[in-house]
Amino acid sequence: MPVPLYQAKAEFFRTLGHPVRIRVLELLQEGPRPVHELLADIGVEASNLSQQLAVLRRTGLVVSHREGNVVRYELSAPQVGDLLRAARTILTSMLVDQGELLAELREAEREGQR
Amino acid sequence: MPVPLYQAKAEFFRTLGHPVRIRVLELLQEGPRPVHELLADIGVEASNLSQQLAVLRRTGLVVSHREGNVVRYELSAPQVGDLLRAARTILTSMLVDQGELLAELREAEREGQR
DNA sequence: TATGAACATGAAAAATTCTTCAAATCAAGA
DNA sequence: TCTTGATTTGAAGAATTTTTCATGTTCATA
């Protein structure tokens, strides 16, 4: 009973769909990091971060290993960077469009006020 | 009060994180399509599809226009294709890894049984 | 203008996901 | 061994998202 591909994709995107998880992935693009460092950069409760890390671990996007007192995380799929970049491209172009729309709306409003 | 970028990204990915929405986007990559055609390809209730289309419209990923009796949808950001492709790459490589893992587990099990 | 097909919408119930809190684990050092 | 810092875990309640159903719209055509 293989999970249909489109469902696997949906699950994959859904795991990217959380602000803390996105920040973690972006930080990890620069290289492996211990939890306490992530914790310092992203300002959330330790247990909350831990829960999100668990989500990323389950999907296999990151792996962790303990080094003494500290647990270090890293991306397991380096291509994640490409994905985030592609997303950024779309997103900025969409935000630009929205910005233009917004500008037009404001313009229209000014016109109306005369 | 601009929405922090990482939050915008998370929202963006979350809208991709639904099987019906993914299928819609993939179908629309091949070109514009009327709702009833999407409906035939994806087998869900009409109102359900409609709700998901509404989500995609709100995020600005698709646009629709009525042509007589029919409403035609299309991708508003053609780069969505790139994104889906990047995702597919990661996903398949991850699935392959999992497949290997699975194979090892089965192997280990066989070993154990001897 | 009455009817029907194609879609959309609003709202409530059902299902998932998030956040938070208390408690547990693990390794290092006193 | 006791303590402490680092991190994880389980569970419960809060918040969001999905699904579903009934009802609207819109346009074409009889």
TrEMBL record, chains A, B:
Keyword Transmembrane: no
Record carries keyword DNA-binding: yes
GO molecular function terms noted in the UniProt entry: DNA binding; DNA-binding transcription factor activity
Keyword terms of this UniProt record: DNA-binding, Transcription, Transcription regulation
Residue span(s) of domain HTH arsR-type: 1-95
NCBIfam families per record: HTH_metalloreg (NF033788)
Annotated protein name in UniProt: ArsR family transcriptional regulator
